[in-house]
Amino acid sequence: MTSEQKEKELRSELDQKARKGETVVPGGAGGKSLEAQEHLAEGRIRGGQKRKQQLGVDGYRIIGKKGGESSSSKKHVHDHDDQHHDREHQTQ
């Protein structure tokens, strides 16, 4: 059996597993076939690289430290700061 035949057979087996719902490509979760999982994984990798370019290395570190705060948790922090600020002005 040639290497091309082996690769074709392996891809066929992986495609069958993917069609049964298994994730056979890292980052390909949700794809209904081997090809779909490959495309999903590629898109997810590109998306991460694009965000890294936009944010830069330092921006990525900041997000990592904050743990990816949601916008609602940020709003809560700002509301708390505003209330604290209002109290300071009321006492003066």
Please provide a brief summary of the model.
The chain has 92 residues and is an all-alpha fold. The chain is 77% helix and 0% strand.
Describe this structure in words.
- The protein is mainly alpha-helical.
- The chain has three helices and no strands.
- It has helices spanning 3-19, 34-66, 71-91.
- The mean pLDDT is 81.
- Residues 1-22, 35-45, 78-92 have a biased composition (Basic and acidic residues).
- It comes from Zostera marina.
Mean pLDDT: 81
Major sheet summary line: none
User: What is the C-alpha radius of gyration, as a whole number of Å?
Assistant: 24 Å
Unreliable spans are: none
Q: Write the H/E string, N to C.
A: HHH
The number of strands is 0
Helix content: over 70%
Structural class determined from secondary elements: mainly alpha
Q: How far apart are the termini?
A: 87 Å
Q: What spatial form do the alpha-carbon principal axes imply?
A: elongated
Number of helices: 3
Strand content: under 5%
Number of domains: 1
Show the helix and strand layout:
Elements: H1 3-19, H2 34-66, H3 71-91
InterPro entries: LEA_5, Small_hydrophilic_seed_prot
Biased composition (Basic and acidic residues): 1-22, 35-45, 78-92
Region (Disordered): 1-92
Overview features:
elongated; 3 helices; mainly alpha; Small hydrophilic plant seed protein; Small_hydrophilic_seed_prot; LEA_5; 92 residues
